[in-house]
Write a sequence for this structure.
């Protein structure tokens, strides 16, 4: 099939004009594309940038850029993988612009948690902060693979496209990441046990 | 419990973190709409902010009324882009509707001052220079949510007002107060050119289910049937315990 997804989603990429007629003809509109993938983008942004307070900005950037680049998007490219590539670049830009103000290697200060996280139930906040600390022990490439595989449950093939690498590399990174996170969790539990009477 | 099970439990507990709320969806959708809408217009730069606001509002609302952008972004918050900070002194670009041939030639002039209360939680003015400004994406500031703030009606544009009421009604639902949620919607009723009908209807259904109304489930089922593609459907389904 040669049609680009831009045709399906009703986006005139060149002119930047959006067509809504597809809404009634069964093809996917940009609104539907947005609705279908907003949660993925928001969740993944939060996981890769746990202290990012301007999540609105990040997600907005991702979808506006996605809209402008639909002509580059072929059907062979899984939507989440494609969006992840954009998200990764957007997060890099944000980090650069803020000069790594929120270093992921810092320990989590509950007072500094973004509002959307701080408003969650305590057990969720605890899980988030602990997992964030554990993931901080990973390098960026392994952290990405862990987040996409374990939290988003994407396939190795999808992750390979998303991270522009090979499936074997993805599997290798995931294996290393799991071992590292498990070991870090084990150490964390051991420390807790030593502290408790 | 072995390390693998321990990790699995932790991952399962952390998985929902970052799930966008309905408010987040609406807010970001409105912001994207503002940016995407702007890209379809020939652009000139006005010298004053007030002129920008007044002129900016007209073509985009006009386009929204054609249904084009409403359908593109799910149809709900097309007018929300127009929430501007009336105190902003920086010049804003003016987008002329030359690329919107379906836009009505004459529309009522937008007010020169928008209400800046809880609406500020939905859209606020662009922030100063940012790396991604190269993409010409308007930035917005975060603001402290004020879900129970008094609903100000003076000089608010209808769509701003509509969106603000819905955000407040959602907040009331979150606080377990369905009666207040409905009261907020009943306070004024839909504006003459209501654009957020689906959102209003959803709040009413959710409030009905939360209050245990007799016919709430029937209304919910009807909504789910008629709005199968809506992002709100799943929430209605869950809140009203539909199969």
């Amino acid at each position: 099939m040669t049609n680009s997804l831009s045709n399906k989603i009703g986006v005139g990429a060149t002119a930047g004009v959006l067509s809504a007629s597809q809404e009634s003809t069964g093809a996917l509109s940009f609104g539907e594309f947005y609705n279908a993938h907003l949660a993925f983008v928001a969740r993944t942004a939060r996981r890769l940038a746990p202290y990012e307070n301007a999540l609105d900005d990040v997600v907005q950037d991702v979808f506006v850029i996605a809209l402008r680049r639909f002509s580059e998007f072929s059907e062979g490219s899984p939507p989440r993988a494609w969006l992840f590539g954009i998200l990764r670049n957007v997060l890099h830009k944000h980090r650069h612009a803020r000069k790594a103000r929120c270093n992921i290697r810092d320990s989590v200060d509950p007072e500094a948690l973004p509002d959307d996280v701080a408003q969650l139930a305590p057990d969720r906040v605890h899980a988030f902060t602990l997992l964030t600390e554990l993931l901080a022990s990973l390098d960026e490439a392994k952290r990405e693979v862990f987040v996409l595989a374990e939290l988003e449950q994407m396939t190795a093939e999808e992750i390979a496209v998303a991270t522009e690498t090979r499936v074997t590399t993805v599997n290798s990174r995931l294996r290393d990441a799991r071992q590292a996170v498990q070991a870090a969790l084990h150490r964390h539990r051991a420390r807790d046990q030593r502290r408790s009477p | 419990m072995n390390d693998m099970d321990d990790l699995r439990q932790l991952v399962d507990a952390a998985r929902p973190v970052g799930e966008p709320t309905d408010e987040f969806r609406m807010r970001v959708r409105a912001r994207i709409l503002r940016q995407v809408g702007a890209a379809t217009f020939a652009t000139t730069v006005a010298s004053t902010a007030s002129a920008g606001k007044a002129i900016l509002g007209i073509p985009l609302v006009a386009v929204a009324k054609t249904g084009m952008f409403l359908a593109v972004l799910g149809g709900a918050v097309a007018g929300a882009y127009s929430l501007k900070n009336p105190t902003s002194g920086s010049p804003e670009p003016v987008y002329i509707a030359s690329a919107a041939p379906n836009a009505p030639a004459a529309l009522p002039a937008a007010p020169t001052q928008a209400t800046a209360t809880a609406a500020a939680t939905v859209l606020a003015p662009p922030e100063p220079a940012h790396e991604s400004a190269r993409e010409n994406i308007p930035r917005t500031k975060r603001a402290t949510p004020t879900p129970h703030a008094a609903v100000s009606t003076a000089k608010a544009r209808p769509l701003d007002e509509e969106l603000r009421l819905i955000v407040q009604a959602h907040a009331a639902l979150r606080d377990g107060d369905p009666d207040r949620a409905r009261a907020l919607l009943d306070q004024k009723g839909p504006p003459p050119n209501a654009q957020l009908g689906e959102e209003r209807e959803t709040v009413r259904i959710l409030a009905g289910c939360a209050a245990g109304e007799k016919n709430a489930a029937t209304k919910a089922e009807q909504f789910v049937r008629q709005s199968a593609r809506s992002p709100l459907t799943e929430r209605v389904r869950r809140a009203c315990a539909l199969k």
Notes: Confidence is low (pLDDT under 50) at residues 1-27 of chain A. The longest strand of chain A covers residues 11-12. Chain A is about 65% helix and 0% strand.
